[in-house]
Amino acid sequence: MTHSNRFRRTIGIAEISALILGTLGLVASELPQPAFAAPAGPYVISSTAMLSGTTITSPWVLDLSSSAHWAIGVNAAGGGVLVRRDTVSGVFTTSPMEADETAATAGTAILGSTQIAFVVSLKTGGARIVVLDTTTRSRVASAALPAAAVGSTAIGSSSQGYLFIVTPGSPTSILKVTVATGLLASALFIPAANSPATSAITRAGSLYVMTATSPTKVVVVKTNPGTTIESTTTLAAIAPSLNAPTFGLNDMWYSTTTTPGRVIGFNTSSKVITADFAGPAGSIGVKALTLDPTRETAWYTTTISGGGVLVNMRLSDGAVLSTTPLPSTVSPHAIFVSEYTVDVLSAVNAHVTRFALISPPDAPTGVAVLERSEGITVSWNPDASSETPVRYAVSVVGNGHIAGCETTATMCDVGGLVNGHQYTVRVRAISLVGFTESAPLSARPARLPDAPSALAATRGNRSIEIRWTPGADGGRPVERFVASANPGNHTCITTANGCTIGGLTNGVHYSITVRAETAMGASPQRSSTETVMPATLPSNPEHLTTWTEGRNRTIVVCAPGDAGGYRDASLRARVVRNGVPGESFRPSTISTIRIGGTKPQSLAIEIRAINAVGESLPLIIPIDTNPVRVNTSRSSQRSLLTSCKRRSMAFEIRP
């Protein structure tokens, strides 16, 4: 097994359970995440004291009906406690035993039931058989045992409702106890030559007892019908003592305390040794032997050069697949193997050191954050590296605020954020063996900005000047304002609170809109209540002609062709005598101006074109006070008067 380099953080068993069960606790200060290369083989991902102050004294009993391992321990006050370890989550729970009960030395699951049994020592001396129901943790039976049962080395069960307790000492006795009552039904003594017993295990109506004799022996006790010694097999090549018996598919497996430690396979049908595998060179003894049927290997601990080592051995040929040093705090009591992890449990404080058999998932990639009002949506690419189911946890931290979400999908929403505030976003890929984390991203939730208000437009020459008051930015700074004039979609873009739209056509009515734009998008449009028409001052009036009829003169003036954007311009005139403005005239058919008896030194008519913007520059027509008599035909006069298609003025100058 190889493991790629990646950022990892070790994770405790309880924390893994919390993560997988959806109860991740997010913290405001993130711990550093060291990078290291996982070794080829198991590597430590956690080391946790599960029951501080409690020491496990009995073997662990696996009850499949409750998906749990069970054991008896002693708390700091010396009282006995029933300990349950969930096989899925790894969580430990306890409940007190009776007040006079303390440690236990043997235990078993009772075949065909939801019950377990332990040989429990009493504070006052002696021993008691205790039968418990795993679903309710209530007592089914409880009874005193003979003094010989104190410190029993093993206990087995049968489908006929009996327990078989293997006592220490020589000669060893097999106590047959009724499950329903806990009362002693019978006793069988193993001859002293085949005693004492070191361990035992039941299977298929037989109890297999290992002895500490030299040479070592396996005594097979038939438990149904009756209790009788069926056979005794001498294992000449095996030095004492055999311990940690466990069953494989066809064989029973034992371990030795010799140097080097050995793992022994024993065929229960032929009563012969089928395997004898030495441990790593220099290893002293084998402890906590546990089979891994899925991988067809065995796990155990040993001591090499004074330090504890976790060993994985292939059962087909005894090849040592891996050796992994144990932390100095580990004093192995049991090993629990799952699909992806191996837990080595020390008796004191029920301290569990968890080893991962596979790598954590790769850190999430393609992480993207979509900001919205008071929240964000986070997405990422699915993990393709992990051999275990992966959950994802998103943490959002910032401004004293902590939020997050968990999912098995590749996207989740996080709400309850404050618009405009900066947050740090991380995505974790979590499996049973740990987690990896993406690089942090920044996010700032926000909403769309409000539309500008107090819109005001001022017309200009081929342009419109627009001013406004900005609205709320929604949590993101306004990047620009866009003002538009239609028809024609004429625009101006600015970061200020006003701009001028040019290139317009005078005399055209334009509707005006303004919007604000941020990184979140555009605000609603703010529209002017009325259209606006660009315009300018009209051009000067046109002097069409002057004609005389006798001593009278007639002057015809026409409004300018360019009325500054309007359809037409009006005219206004006044007489200027010797540079002093005089009477004014409004458009009429013909206005009469008399020179008078005292002729002025200068006489002129000043005419201006007028529109809504203002007045044009004046058209000044000087008047000769001593004109030469010239006659113009009437038809010519009428033609001149009607040639102006716009507003016009006519002045008749008389002596």
UniProtKB/TrEMBL annotation:
A Pfam family per the record: fn3
Gene Ontology CC, one term: membrane
Region (Disordered): 521-540
Annotated Fibronectin type-III domain residues: 360-446, 448-539
Residue ranges with Polar residues bias: 524-540
PANTHER family according to UniProt: CYTOKINE RECEPTOR (PTHR46957)
Name the record gives this protein: Unannotated protein
Species of provenance: freshwater metagenome
